[in-house]
Write a structure and sequence with these properties.
It is built from twelve helices and no strands. It has 197 residues and is mostly helical. Helix 3 crosses helix 8 and helix 8 crosses helix 10. It is globular and about 40 Å long.
C-alpha cells in the first residue's frame, strides 16, 4: 500500500469537491495520529479512502453491502442510504485499492455511524471526517476547531461530537441511528462526566 499511488488512483475516481474534502481529512488524521500513538501511514490511508465509495450509485453500494454485510446492518441503517457508502467503502478499498489491513478497513466502515467495537484509528477517522474544514460550516465543524484535539482523550472528544450530532438531528426531527447510541453507551462513564463540563 503506497499512499501516493492510492492517492492518484482515488483522484481519478472522485469529483474535485469530494477529493478536496478527502485530503482535508487526511491532513487532520496525519496531524493527530501521533498524539494518539497511532500508525501515521495507516491513518493517512484510512482517511484517504474513507469516502472511496461515496459517489457510487446507491444501488451499487447496496449490492456490495448485500454481498458482504447482509446480516450486519440494523433496520434503521438499511433505511438510510446516505450511510451505505461506509460499508461499501470497506469492499471497494479491499477489492479496487488492494487494502487488506483490517484496522484501515474497519475505520472506513465505521466512519459514519461509529460502533462500540471501533478502535482508536476508527475513532480518529470518524472525528477527522466530522471536523474537516472543507465541509459547509455546521454545528459539528464549529466545535472541532483549531486545537480541539490537543491533549484530550479521544473518547472524550468522540462523546462530545456524537452528543452534539444527536442535538442537531433532534432539531431537524431526525433520529440518531441505534449503532451510534450503542457506541455512546459503550464509552467509559468517566468520559461522560468530562464531556459535559
Amino acid at each position: 500500500m503506497n499512499f501516493e499511488t492510492l492517492q492518484q488512483q482515488l483522484k481519478e475516481n472522485l469529483s474535485e469537491k469530494r477529493f478536496e474534502h478527502t485530503m482535508g481529512v487526511v491532513d487532520l488524521a496525519e496531524a493527530y495520529a501521533e498524539q494518539y500513538k497511532l500508525d501515521v501511514e495507516k491513518a493517512k490511508i484510512a482517511a484517504l479512502l474513507h469516502d472511496c465509495a461515496k459517489e457510487l450509485p446507491s444501488d451499487i453500494q447496496k449490492m456490495h453491502i448485500e454481498k458482504h454485510f447482509i446480516d450486519e446492518l440494523y433496520a434503521d441503517e438499511w433505511e438510510a442510504p446516505q450511510l451505505w457508502h461506509a460499508w461499501a467503502g470497506y469492499v471497494v478499498a479491499e477489492e479496487e485499492y488492494g487494502v487488506w489491513d483490517l484496522e484501515i478497513l474497519n475505520a472506513i466502515k465505521w466512519h459514519t455511524t461509529g460502533d462500540p467495537d471501533m478502535d482508536d484509528l476508527a475513532k480518529l477517522i470518524y472525528l477527522c471526517d466530522a471536523g474537516d474544514e472543507g465541509r459547509e460550516p455546521n454545528e459539528i465543524t464549529e466545535i472541532i476547531g483549531d486545537g480541539f484535539f490537543a491533549n484530550k482523550p479521544i473518547n472524550s472528544i468522540l462523546l462530545q461530537v456524537i452528543n452534539k450530532h444527536k442535538e442537531v438531528l433532534k432539531e431537524k426531527n431526525q433520529k440518531e441511528v441505534v449503532r451510534t447510541n450503542f457506541l455512546r453507551e459503550s464509552l467509559p462513564k468517566i468520559f461522560v462526566t468530562e464531556a459535559k463540563e
